[in-house]
Amino acid sequence: MGMEKIQYLAQAYFHQDYDLEAENPIQVLTEFRDAEPPEVVEELRDAMERVLTSGVCEEELTALWLDRAGACYDPRQDGMEMSVWFRQMIDALL
């Protein structure tokens, strides 16, 4: 499913101090897009698309992003569903 790509984004960019390095979470994704090779960005986008189209529920997406991938940003604290966050991440990586 490309879980290693999602883990890389979560652990390398959404670590515990991510909010000190960017004004908002979308800016973190912009930095990822600009810093990483285009094929890495495309592989991550494809992996996220596959996750969303696999029919996982919100709870499974939450577990994938926070527990399995190890991200320190929880979009639910900003009133956003995890599926909306995944869609925003994909859009930000275009």
Automatic annotation (TrEMBL):
Alphabetized InterPro entries for the sequence: CdiI_2 (IPR041129)
Classification via Pfam families: CdiI_2 (PF18593)
Domain CdiI immunity protein per the UniProt entry, residue ranges: 4-89
Highest taxon above the source species: Bacteria
Name of the protein in question: Contact-dependent growth inhibition system immunity protein
Organism in which the protein naturally occurs: Streptomyces bluensis
